[in-house]
Amino acid sequence: MKVDVLLGLQWGDEGKGKIVDVLTPKYDIIARFQGGPNAGHTLEFEGVKHVLHTIPSGIFHSNVINLIGNGVVIDPVVFQKELEKLAPFNINIKERLVLSKKAHLILPSHRLLDAASETAKGKNKIGSTLKGIGPTYMDKTGRNGLRVGDIFLPTFQQKYDALVEKHIGMLKHYEGFEYNLAELEGPWMEGIEILRNLKAVDSEHYLDQALRAGKKILAEGAQGTMLDIDFGTYPYVTSSNTVTAGTCTGLGVAPSKIGNVIGIFKAYCTRVGSGPFPTELLDEVGEQIRQEGREFGSTTGRPRRCGWIDLPAMKYAIMINGVTELAMMKSDVLDKFDTIRACTKYRINGEEIDYLPYDIDGVTIEPIWEDIPGWGQDLTALTSFGDAPQALKDYVTYLERHLEVPITTVSVGPDRIQTLATR
Ligand code: GDP
Ligand code: IMO
Ligand code: MG
After folding, report:
1. Nearest ligand (C-alpha, residue 137)
2. 15 CB-near residues (< 8 Å, 6+ apart)
3. What pLDDT, in 10s, does the model give residues 167-216?
4. Residue 17 CA: which ligand is closest?
5. To the nearest 10°, the Cα dihedral for 324, 330, 331, 332?
6. End-to-end CA gap in the chain
7. Are 317 and 285 contacting, i.e. CB atoms less than 8 angstroms apart?
């Protein structure tokens, strides 16, 4: 068996949570491979909306294991809150959730360092979710981090104290940054106690055995390709590899074991936080997309920046990830638009290019548009793609022609059932 992957092709919030939930019945294990509580994955069914941050989006299905891989960073405080929100749904967490012993822990002092660093950056701030992601991955690669496996060791407190002492030293460099660490530590240690009661495993072996036993695994990405630490719009990115290769390092799965790669994107484009966004619309059209799409962050509530679809960026994401099929989300958000636009190339300093240049921050990028007729009707009640308006089918065909990958899923609303297979 192979591991299928579902990941975002834009700047995050493409609708990964919804589609993972829809696909879960086809799988035995859903595994998160990177990111942490900076993610906010929304699922909607039976009139209830759920937002998950660390827990994989297969958690609402029985007989499916949800695994938090070694590439993920876990904040015990956020994690405990997530579990509390799931409590009314009577999910047997101990049976359904498995953690990698090699996943790194976000300490309260990581969160402080994130805040101090962002404040110090002033107008150059990343627009981080301030969940401590960057500092935690820095300690991971700096070989200082604390891992889930450490919480079972007698030396845990000692290791914790040593790391915190280092962080306190670092915080001294941020003049005027005030904090109260003691107040944050109580809830954190409570969260650690919760983690101690869950199943922690060597997840690379766990997954290998599952594959050998013929189990089906879906890897769930967080963030999106354009936020990848290597291939995103650096430095305005997150601190992990959000791309398919991240599945291999974030779960311990060999590249030869990767199966289908499902790339997910919005019928338009959004970004939250700072950084370049070539197709951003700062006019009333952008505002209309924000209102129709309810484009406000699932984790921070911040308004998302909105624009039309960016085909050069999408082609790049498809190449980097080896995408084999596409899912187009939030098509219904464009119901009221007479014309839809797609950016097919960029014009930079008078030159037309169809790829993202190295320096996209210091230059003015002018999108070159193609106009596509809208469908001008409500899609949300559709139950079959066959019944979709011709203009929507044409938009799908148009995108497939440019992207050279089939769009197999079209989403027409936030609910689980508002999901159409195109074939
Ligand atoms: P994720 O981070 O990729 O899981 O995406 P988010 O949950 O952060 O953001 C996607 C938002 O769009 C959520 O509020 C979803 O409920 C919503 N959503 C997902 N698919 C659709 C869709 O097809 N139409 C509409 N209108 N909303 C959708
Ligand atoms: P999901 O999984 C959208 C953005 C932040 C910021 C940058 C760095 O829900 O799609 P970080 O907190 O990682 O240091 O922030 O990345 N960002 C996201 N944007 N969706 C996400 O996750 C994101 N996670 C981080 O806004 O610009
Ligand atoms: Mg999100």
Report:
1. 2
2. 42, 264, 266, 327, 329, 330, 411
3. 999 999 999 999 999 999 999 999 999 999 999 999 999 999 999 999 99
4. 1
5. 160
6. 24
7. no
